[in-house]
Amino acid sequence: MHIFFVAIISILLSVAAQFLLKAGMSSIEIKQAFAQPLTLRLPWIVLTNAFIFGGFTLYGLGAVVWLKVLSTWDVSKAYPLVGLGFGLTVLVGIGMGESVTALRVLGVLLICEGVWLVANT
C-alpha cells in the first residue's frame, strides 16, 4: 500500500477518535460526573465511557499506523499531513450540524494548501 494512503488511514482514525471523545464528553453521565465535587471516581467514570474508550482506542490504532509512516518518510514531510485532519474534522463537523464560520473554513483551506505544498516537495 502506498505510504500516503497509510498516512490518510492514520489521520482518519484520529478524526474519528476526536468525534468519539466529543460524544463521550457530551454524554449526560460524564456531564453529571463533572458537576459533582472531584473524587477519585471521576477518572473511572470517564475512562469506562464507551465513546471515550473507543476514542482512545482509535487514537492508539492511529498511532501504530503512524509508526509505519514515520518508518518510511522524513518527519518534516509526514507531520504536515496531519493538517489534513483539520479539513476532515471541519467537514464531519458540518455534517453533524456544528456551526462553522466562513473564516474558520478559510483558515482550514490555508492549512490544507500548506499541506499540499509540503507534500509536493
Please render the helix and strand layout as text.
Blueprint: H1 3-25, H2 28-35, H3 41-47, H4 50-72, H5 75-78, H6 84-95, H7 102-119
Protein name: Small multi-drug resistant family protein
Keywords: Cell membrane, Membrane, Transmembrane, Transmembrane helix
Organism: Methylomonas denitrificans
User: In angstroms, what is the radius of gyration?
Assistant: 17 Å
Number of domains: 1
Portion in helices = over 70%
Low-confidence stretches: none
Amino- and carboxy-terminal Cα gap: 21 Å
- State which percent range the strand residues make up: under 5%
Reading the helices and strands in chain order gives HHHHHHH
Number of strands: 0
Coarse shape: globular
Transmembrane segments: 45-66, 78-96, 102-119
GO molecular function, one term: transmembrane transporter activity
Keywords: Cell membrane, Membrane, Transmembrane, Transmembrane helix
GO cellular component, one term: plasma membrane
